[in-house]
Backbone:
């Protein structure tokens, strides 16, 4: 209800009483009767207004508008991380329901987005608080095309049926037409890397990356040796190509792996903040300046900071990590990243991209760790590979092409890539052209959305290449998608469903021939 009408509703009891008072002046009954009539009218009008509020209150907490986090947990681990997931999403401002899986009815799901956090029990069974849901899910004839979901599965690889329940749940959801927000994550004995990745996906869903890592892991020191803008003059935000080398021992990784970066606040901002708190930014503790120590911590607002003494200040949790696809391979001798500057609504730079693209000086040390991402490792080199992506998703796709370029035997690759303008946003143009000329890239399809009056995106290019896509798939090709979850990733999923069908796409997923790295 618009604000003026809400005000009138709140004034209704008073207006009703004034009207009755005027009537009583004309009628002039005994004083006791007049008072009783006025009180009764006021109570009746107040009850009317109170009841009028109920539909709006119910609507504001309507389960159908919520994101649901649901859990099936035998020993309590899955429930714990479901609770932490719900807490992170609520802190980001989302309306979240937390429910045991058996509280859900498959034919009447309470939300259009559901996150399943589940463990596996015994010989691949569902936990007790999820068994009834699975029975009903397996027997019901459901059409869940409007549902988006994700699965975090807990298990132990020492057991034969590792994450079996989570796998069955994911497969059944796909069979019913539901759309995965991102591929299933499987946490072997609560693998910290998998849990940190799940937290990053929650951050993407909520649009808020300000969270505390549940299970932080130690970083290694890398040195930022080069930073180059890939799209000068672009109408979009600047995109930078970054090069980092390890300070001590060499690191190994594969195409498809992820780096987790420990960002820092701008040092000059920390110096100003400490001065506001009456502390010396140059003070050294354990050989490090106070401003530098503060730069890596998650800071509350200024009013809260003023209440903290120095030990409490230094005990604040570290900043949440940021994840980026690796754009290089180990033989390049360095980790290369492709990072777009992100900005908040007030114009300030995002924490991770601001640190890497603006605040960190060339030669400065960066806290970084490499996380294996086997679900996006490439297929054998003799498997034809279809790579689809947009924007900074070129990073993960480029690593796969570089890995194939380094292989002794030939391979077939097809890249479909989209950005804004060819004149400014054609990332790695010379390298891609070289691969096209050499035959490493058998086909290159590009979509620059702003280069024609009607916007054209990579998903439309994919749809237009339907016959060739089916032919490549029939010849054994795998499909790898890297880039934005919202928009590109979801629409590519729907187009592939339309072109290949639900059963074929499920088969490709089961065979490891359809993989996604979306953010």
Residues:
């Amino acid at each position: 209800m618009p604000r003026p009408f809400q005000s009138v509703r709140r004034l209704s009891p008073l207006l009703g009483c004034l009207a009755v008072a005027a009537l009583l002046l004309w009628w002039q009954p005994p004083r006791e009767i007049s008072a009783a009539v006025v009180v009764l009218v006021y109570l009746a009008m107040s009850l009317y207004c109170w009841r009028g509020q109920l539909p709006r209150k119910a609507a504001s907490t309507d389960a159908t508008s919520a994101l649901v986090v649901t859990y099936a947990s035998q020993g309590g681990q899955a429930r714990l991380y479901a609770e932490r997931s719900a807490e992170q999403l609520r802190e980001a401002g989302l309306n979240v329901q937390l429910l045991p899986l058996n509280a859900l009815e498959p034919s009447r799901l309470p939300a259009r987005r559901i996150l399943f956090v589940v463990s596996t029990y015994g010989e691949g069974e569902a936990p007790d608080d999820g068994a009834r849901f699975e029975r009903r899910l397996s027997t019901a004839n459901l059409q869940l095309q409007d549902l988006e979901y994700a699965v975090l599965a807990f298990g132990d690889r020492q057991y034969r049926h590792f994450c079996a329940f989570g796998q069955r749940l994911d497969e059944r959801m796909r069979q019913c037409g539901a759309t995965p927000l991102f591929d299933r994550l499987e946490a072997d004995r609560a693998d910290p890397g998998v849990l940190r990745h799940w937290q990053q996906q929650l951050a993407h869903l909520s649009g808020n990356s300000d969270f505390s890592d549940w299970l932080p892991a130690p970083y290694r020191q890398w040195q930022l040796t080069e930073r180059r803008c890939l799209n000068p003059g672009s109408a979009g935000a600047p995109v930078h190509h970054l090069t980092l080398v390890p300070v001590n021992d060499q690191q190994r990784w594969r195409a498809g792996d992820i780096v987790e970066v420990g960002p820092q606040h701008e040092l000059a901002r920390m110096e100003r903040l400490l001065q506001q708190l009456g502390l010396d930014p140059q003070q050294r503790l354990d050989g490090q300046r106070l401003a530098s120590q503060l730069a890596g911590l998650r800071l509350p607002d200024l009013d809260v900071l003023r209440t903290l003494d120095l030990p409490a200040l230094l005990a604040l949790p570290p900043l949440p990590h940021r994840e980026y696809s690796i754009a290089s391979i180990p033989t390049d001798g360095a980790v290369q990243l492709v990072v777009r500057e992100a900005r908040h609504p007030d114009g300030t730079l995002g924490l991770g991209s601001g640190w890497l693209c603006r605040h960190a000086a060339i030669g400065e040390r960066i806290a970084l760790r490499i996380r294996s991402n086997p679900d996006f490792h490439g297929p054998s080199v003799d498997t034809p590979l279809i790579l689809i992506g947009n924007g900074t998703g070129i990073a993960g796709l480029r690593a796969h092409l570089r890995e194939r370029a380094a292989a002794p035997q030939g391979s077939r690759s097809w890249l479909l890539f989209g950005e804004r303008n060819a004149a400014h946003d054609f990332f790695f143009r010379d390298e891609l052209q070289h691969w096209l000329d050499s035959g490493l890239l058998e086909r290159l399809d590009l979509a620059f959305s702003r280069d024609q009056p009607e916007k054209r995106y990579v998903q439309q290019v994919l749809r237009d290449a339907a016959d060739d896509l089916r032919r490549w798939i029939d010849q054994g090709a795998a499909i790898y998608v890297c880039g934005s979850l919202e928009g590109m990733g979801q629409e590519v999923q729907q187009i592939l469903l339309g072109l290949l069908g639900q059963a074929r796409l499920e088969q490709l997923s089961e065979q490891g021939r359809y993989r996604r790295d979306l953010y």
